[in-house]
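Action item from last week, closing it out:
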Amino acid sequence: MKRSINKLVRSENQDLKKKRFIYSLILFFICLNAAFASENINSLYEYRLLLTEFTTDVDEDSNALAQSLIYSLRDNLFSVRKLSVNFVNNINDFILVSREDENLIALSEQMGCNYVINGNVSIAKDTINIHFAVLDTTAKRMIFNETLSDKKNNVELILDDFVIKLAKILNIELSTEELNNIRNNQSSFNNLIQLGELIKLHYTLELTRDLSKLKKWEVYREFCYRSYALFNEQNKDPYIKFFLTYSRYVLTIEERIELLQDIIKIKPFYPEVYHCLNLEYLNKKELSKSLEYAKISYEQAPYYGKNLISLCSRLSNLEKYEEALKYAEEALRVIPKSEDALKNMILTAINLKNYKLAEKVALSAVELLPNSLLMLQNVALVYCEQNNFKKALPYYKQIIAKANNENDSLNETALYATWRLVRCYIEVGEFKNAYNIVNSMISSNNMHDYNYYYLGLIHKNLGQIELAKKYFEKEIDFFGPEEKPLLELVEYYREKSDYQSVFDTYRQIIAIDEHNSVFLNNTAWFCLLSEMNIVYANELIEKSKSFTKLESDYMGTLAWINLLNKKFDVAEQMTKKIIEKDIINEGYAIVIILKIINKDFNEAKRLYNIFNKDFDNEVKTMFNNSCNYLEINIEEAIAWFFK
């Protein structure tokens, strides 16, 4: 296994050796052309660095060392707050760019950089030589072109020396804190070599497209075990600790968080670790904690585009859209041609319901990146969000035409666009076009998730409800429980007032998405309607509360639970909040029951006469169930209530 992996990496390296030698000579002349494409970048960011992958000599140690040093150098550059650093080959971000010249030019332009850093690593016995070259693309001149050398065990000192010299050339005065952060490196030469081998192994996983799923799993499993073995040998090295957190095969989410926290104790300045903590807590749906770490990562590296995008996303998760917009705009200034930054800006504008801004950014993004399928998707999304499905249609057609591969089989991008196209046809009433697409896929054995789901939607919109239900059930039978067809079944059963079936279906949904506060609340609501299981309903609401800051997600159901638990004062206070949030039906139904309990029958009747027309079947059922549970004599108190 190990031998086959090394072959893959060695083969890849051999293919690049010839290009790399030529590339290292002409890189800076290439980048001169990219400079002109960056003229419109906001002048606020004076030092925007593009850090490229280091070239190496032919030996394996040099190659492994180059892989790990690039990460160490990036972290050192992060220590200088005035620098904005972008990374060509960031495995941590899975931004994997081939070393073809035109791709480097495009990325240099996309990242909006005015300095490009390149390097070459060589090992001569006990000495490490790293040649650094820095091009100022605005002034069209080399500002640093020097080889720095030291003993093997002092390899990190070479990087420290380079960063300090670069800061001096750029007239950046380093603070004591910045100097301490630069010098706080603890990886030995041997550790860096082993770490580089792991990075190459991980690199193989991401670059090698022809690996089967089974083969990829074997490579990934070896990567995990080798990471774990290296960690056990050298568990004080922060970089090795950090790389182990990518070994999800051997670590749980709690173990990864604990490991990341340990790294911070060793190396407090480590933006990437805080970013990973942000993502781990996001996976746990602990949004406030996730935002806390996103902010720290941003504070440590404020001009790193990924940090700005991540901070914007966390704020959006908590519905702080106005604040999120500020960071979305900042990200675009730092990386003006980044797909992620543009998408982030568009989604933030959509969240603010500022569709004019979203459309403007989306259309300009298509002009800026004409070959980007993601930008076409964004335009279509903006129109769909405004229910202008007719305008979205041509964009999805473009995506499908561009994304289909030579074998005419649907790849992921084309498949997504195809389903969106079907949905648009349904929304504009072109059911025949929608049906032809789905039926064609089924007839050609192009079986994918949602084939039967979309057939169900077509028949539902044609008013053929029972046939639609059969297709939704067939989708689940064929592909297993899925959220979309299950939600359609929920709607079907609600129309039939079959609350037990709704409750059973929602239990399947929360088994798929156990962190969705709205689904948890709805499950609790139908639990009360169907079984009056107050204990289980309360458990679901408590879980719902932990995943949302919006009281409206659960407040109505919780008020009923307090009423049924005879906590009448609490129920009354919550009911006031419910009514303030315009949840009228549930709010006044509870008020009326409280008035009955307090023997205030005249007020109960007065309120009923005002609001009864708005009470739907679910509220009426809950009212009756609650009265029975609380042993309220309806005949005596409100015989007139549901006449």
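Closing note: The chain has a mean pLDDT of 79.
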